[in-house]
Amino acid sequence: AAHVNVDHLPHAAIIDCTASGDVAMRYHGWLSGGIHVVTPNKKANSASIEYYESLREARRQVGSHYLYEATVGAGLPVITTLRDLRETGDEVREIEGIFSGTLAYLFNVYDGSASFSSIVHDAKSRGYTEPDPRDDLSGVDVARKLIILGREIGLKLEMSDVVIDSLVPVPLRQCGSEEFLARLPEFDGDMLEVLRSAEAEGKVLRYVGRLTSDGKATVGVRRMDRRHPFANMALTDNIVRFVTSRYCDNPLIVQGPGAGPAVTAGGVFGDLLRLAAYLGAKL
Fold first, then answer.
1. DSSP 66-83
2. N or C end of the chain: which has fewer CB within 10 A?
């Protein structure tokens, strides 16, 4: 902070591309000191509501900018779209989506011909999951994104308010990651039973986050009609569906790649260009 925020430079910005909670806890000091912050790190905006509100106040007090489009949907214009809806007077009634490229891939591929655990192993080998796949399967990452979107529409959501249906079997939640992967096949029968039950109803399984305007937030496996937009998407896409006063009969959908270095970098760079424009650059 001292290095970038020097007197002979007109503006200072820090771009945090970590997923570190420790780094996120520094945002308040940076924003209070007039340093602009651009980040895809979800930890700050999904921390306690007190910390979240302190960031907004710090930014207002000194006129610093805080941009975080890539915290939800990587390079997709999810937060920008939501903000535009609110600021133009629309009423957001419900936000629903597939917010995890990893979980989108798992349920797009899983059809019972291969075990669920083998698909998790394959996704890990392809680099689609975190080093410990439980970070994806727990649903906490999706919950963080719901919290961020909920706070954008004025809800005072906390992590404890989100009902999470974790895909990590209870006996495997505290063991090491290697033991988790080794023992995951023990629970393949449970997931296959859920899949066959959905198929009997003519439906598919998807891992969905849903938020309503009254603050009800849920994350978990849902059975979707085969004609639903969530049932027809590319392997690792994110898709977010906004139901609003304007977009009620035909909800507004934002869809596309929601994970990966290139699209995330594009989202961060887009925020940096917005920051430059806010500060008077002629782009």
1. EE-GGGTTTTS-HHHHHH
2. C
Nearest Cα to 165, choosing from 150, 182, 178, 146?
A: 146
- CA 39 – CA 196 distance, rounded (Å): 41
Q: Per DSSP, what are the bridge partners of residue 223?
A: 205
d(C-alpha 212, C-alpha 220), whole Å: 15
Please answer whether residues 55 and 68 qualify as being in contact, where contact means their C-beta atoms are separated by less than 8 angstroms: no
User: So what's the pLDDT on residue 19?
Assistant: 87
In angstroms, rounded to a whole number, what is the distance separating the alpha carbons of residues 22 and 41?
11
DSSP state of 100: -
Question: How many residues are listed for the chain in this entry?
Answer: 283
162-164 and 217-225 as β-strands: parallel, antiparallel, unpaired? Answer: parallel
Question: How far from chain centre, in Å, is Cα 34?
Answer: 27
Write out the DSSP string of 169-192.
-GGGSSS-HHHHHHHGGGGHHHHH
What does DSSP say about strands 92-98 and 66-67: parallel, antiparallel, or unpaired? unpaired
Convert the pLDDT of each residue in 100-128 to its tens digit: 988 999 999 999 999 999 999 998 888 78
pLDDT at 145: 96
State the amino acid at position 18 in one-letter form.
T
37 forms beta bridges with 14, 66
Cα angle, residue 112 at apex, residues 109 and 114 outer, rounded to 5°: 75
Task: Show which residues are catalytic.
Answer: 145
